[in-house]
């Protein structure tokens, strides 16, 4: 476990508000090798890209077992810390999730509050924090401090009135911090003022989604972000470039 514990420690230490760690979102051994060869020190695995890569839909269209099979292929191919988007948990309990990720060689996770197996409902704020707490407890029972990135979809799903949505997201994220999260992810493309407010008022490093060609590290760093990932956008940009290359051959 020592090697994984060291990778988990490294991943956590890379999160620096104002100097964010950039975690390219990958989906298989090929894309992971591509990102590592480009010089990135850690990676995240996205649920949407992984699902696409095996011809299945996002939103828990694959099983946790199918996900960990892919994670093992990635961790066998690259020797950097790997964080994994586990959606809302695939209906599994926290111990099963933590044990499965560690067994696959991963040292971090994203957990969102949209419960796909229950019609896409949003977990209540304390309910989500309790699930985060369960993941923290399960991780603490091992030798690996799995880096827990707690995500809320309040912005993505445009839940409730817009006038107090930022306030509600901050309150929700603070509960997750108290429950043992390491990183907070109020996912969405925010205007600069909102992104800065989130970074300023939340007590842990904030994960922002970045577009690989439309955003840049310096801009997000200036807003106080501590982590940047690309969601499915890196895969989509590569698909667009591939279409350009292939078009003349039709």
Give a short synopsis of this structure.
The protein is an alpha/beta fold and 250 residues long. The chain has 10 helices and 11 strands.
Characterise the protein shown here:
This protein has helices at 2-13, 29-37, 47-53, 64-77, 94-104, 125-140, 165-179, 192-201, 217-222, 233-246; strands spanning 21-23, 25-26, 43-45, 82-85, 108-111, 114-115, 121-122, 147-152, 183-186, 207-209, 227-229. By secondary structure, it is of the alpha/beta class. Strands 2-3-4-5-8-9 form a six-stranded parallel sheet. A three-stranded parallel sheet has the order 1-11-10, with no helix packed on it. Strands 6-7 form a two-stranded antiparallel ribbon. The mean pLDDT is 97.
Helices, strands, pairings?
Elements: H1 2-13, E1 21-23, E2 25-26, H2 29-37, E3 43-45, H3 47-53, H4 64-77, E4 82-85, H5 94-104, E5 108-111, E6 114-115, E7 121-122, H6 125-140, E8 147-152, H7 165-179, E9 183-186, H8 192-201, E10 207-209, H9 217-222, E11 227-229, H10 233-246
Parallel strand pairs: 1-11, 2-3, 3-4, 4-5, 5-8, 8-9, 10-11
Antiparallel strand pairs: 6-7
Helix pairs in contact: 2-4, 4-5, 5-6, 6-7
């Amino acid at each position: 476990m020592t090697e994984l514990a060291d990778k988990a420690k490294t991943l956590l230490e890379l999160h620096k508000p104002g100097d964010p760690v950039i975690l390219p979102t990958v989906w298989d051994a090929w894309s992971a090798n591509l990102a590592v060869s480009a010089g990135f020190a850690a990676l995240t695995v996205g649920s949407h890209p992984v699902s696409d890569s095996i011809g299945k839909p996002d939103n828990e269209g694959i099983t946790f077992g199918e996900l960990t099979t892919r994670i093992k292929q990635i961790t066998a191919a690259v020797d950097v810390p790997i964080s994994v988007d586990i959606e809302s948990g695939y209906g599994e309990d926290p111990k099963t999730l933590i044990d499965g990720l560690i067994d696959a060689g991963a040292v971090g996770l994203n957990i969102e509050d949209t419960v796909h197996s229950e019609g896409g409902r949003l977990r209540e704020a304390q309910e989500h924090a309790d699930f985060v707490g369960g993941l923290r407890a399960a991780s603490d029972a091992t030798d690996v401090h799995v880096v827990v990135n707690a995500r809320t979809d309040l912005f993505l799903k445009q839940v409730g009135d817009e006038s107090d949505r930022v306030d509600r997201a901050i309150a929700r994220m603070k509960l997750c911090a108290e429950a043992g999260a390491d990183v907070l992810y109020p996912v969405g493309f925010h205007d600069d003022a909102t992104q800065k407010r989130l970074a300023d008022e939340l007590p842990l490093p904030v994960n922002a989604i970045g577009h690989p060609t439309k955003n840049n590290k310096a801009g997000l760093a200036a807003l106080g972000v501590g982590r940047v990932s690309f969601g499915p956008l890196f895969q989509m940009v590569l698909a667009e470039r591939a279409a350009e290359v292939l078009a003349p051959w039709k």
